[in-house]
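--- STAGE predict ---
source: upstream dedup step, 1 unique chain passed
mode: sequence only
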Amino acid sequence: MSPGRLQSKSAQDSLLSLKEVGKTFVSDAGRQVPVLESIDLDIRAGELTTVVGATGTGKSTLLNVIAGLCDADNGTVTPASTLDIQNELAYVFQHYTLLPWRNVLKNVAFGLQLRNIPQPQRMREAAALIEQVGLGGFEKAYPHELSGGMRQRAAIAQALATKPKVLLMDEPFGSLDDGTRAELQKMLIELHRQTHTTTLFVTHNIDEAIILADRIVVLGGRPAVIEAGIVVDLPRPRHRTSKEFTELYMKIRNMITPCEVKQ
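--- STAGE serialize ---
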């Protein structure tokens, strides 16, 4: 399979299919800056897929195109007939998107409120999710009263509250310390085990990509193409010191320009 093309094991299981997707931005000086080139990717139902690449490779742009936050200049993003991309897709950003004037409970329940879910039901469902992400007891806390890791737990609960079929995550743990990042990685793996929500997780951290993924998409080059798609069959929990982990780490690292690797 040539670079830039990556399909899931079964195209029939794909919730989203990208074909020949390209994106170019225009710089302040008016120069054309190609970012993505001929991206073919099937996002398979139930998978936790990580997208890894150096900073500036176009990973966030790829998510934004999928989410419809920016249009591709060429190619197509086609949802499955069973996916309503406007109502069944959720996005967790690197920077917290909680509403500062709402407490944790009301933030998590916000999406349900927009869908006119009755208040008693939405509060029950929000409270259950808060407990699920490890924030029990902080329902009445406001975002400014929480640590960075706690705010991101709340943001993930908020995203999952509407039971999305696809969850996009743009380096959500990138600003956290190593210990907190490891805790949230474990939490995400457990949430995915319970919900099987199709998840596309962007990171520049190779360790994180391997720890989380069922499948890793490696972006490289400028404009970016898909350098490889790797099914991760290492048993969980995965240990960074194992021979298999180290070999996979080095394989991915060697696909990324060394001067651009950020850990």
